[in-house]
Write a structure and sequence with these properties.
The protein has 178 residues and is an alpha/beta fold. The chain folds into two domains: 1-25 and 147-178, no CATH class; 26-145, Periplasmic binding protein-like II (D-Maltodextrin-Binding Protein, domain 2). The chain is 52% helix and 14% strand. The protein contains six helices and five strands, in the order αβαβααβαββα. It has helices at 3-23, 43-50, 73-83, 87-100, 112-121, 149-177, and strands spanning 28-33, 64-68, 107-109, 125-130, 138-142. Strands 3-2-4-1-5 form a five-stranded mixed β-sheet. Helix 1 (3-23) runs antiparallel to helix 6. The longest helix is centred in the C-terminal third of the chain and has 29 residues, at 149-177.
């Protein structure tokens, strides 16, 4: 790989990480209806519900996860802060699950008002929303750890540099074999 390709790859990965970091800064919270018996959940339980690994709350009741629209900034922030997965990784996860018959993705809604209405109509429903939109009708059951822009960008830069360095080393090794 020549110098131009390495530089372009480094620039592209850096730009992508900075764009994703801005999305991950939203104040996303996981909510249920105030009528729900669920009081609190941990990250693993939420991840299992939204990735189809579980369909029940810890109290044994059926859980109905509701997802935001694909491509929405809220959805990107939620999955990045919860599991570190990007939108394309989530899409790939569900494609595999559907293909193998192991699951179906959560129902999708297009805005916060629809989510609140769905949560009000089903005490077993669970969703995520910007914390500023939470009112007395909703109960926060989980606050994902916020990922700072600096940590995401610096981690991505480190990974980008190490990947480019590895590529450069591999190119040199290949050249020495010729």
């Amino acid at each position: 790989m020549n110098f131009f390709s390495k530089t372009f790859l480094f620039f592209l990965l850096t730009l992508t990480s900075v764009m994703c970091a801005g999305v991950a800064n939203a104040d996303v919270v996981v909510v249920v209806s105030s009528a729900s018996t669920v009081e609190e959940l941990d990250r693993i339980q939420i991840e299992n519900l939204f990735l189809g690994r579980s369909n029940r709350f810890p109290n044994g009741k059926l859980a109905v996860p509701i997802d935001q629209e694909e491509g929405s900034p809220m959805r990107q922030a939620f999955y990045l802060s919860l599991s570190g997965m990007t939108s394309s990784q989530i899409k790939s996860h569900w494609s595999r699950a559907i293909f193998t018959g192991r699951g179906r993705p959560p129902r999708t809604i297009s805005n916060a008002d629809e989510l609140i209405t769905a949560l009000m109509n089903n005490p077993n429903a669970i969703g995520y929303i910007d914390e500023s939109l939470v009112d007395s009708r909703l109960k926060i059951v989980f606050r994902p750890t916020s990922v700072s822009q600096t940590s995401l960008a610096s981690e991505s830069l480190y990974l980008s540099r190490s990947r480019i360095t590895t590529m450069g080393s591999r190119d040199n090794e290949l050249a020495s074999w010729k």
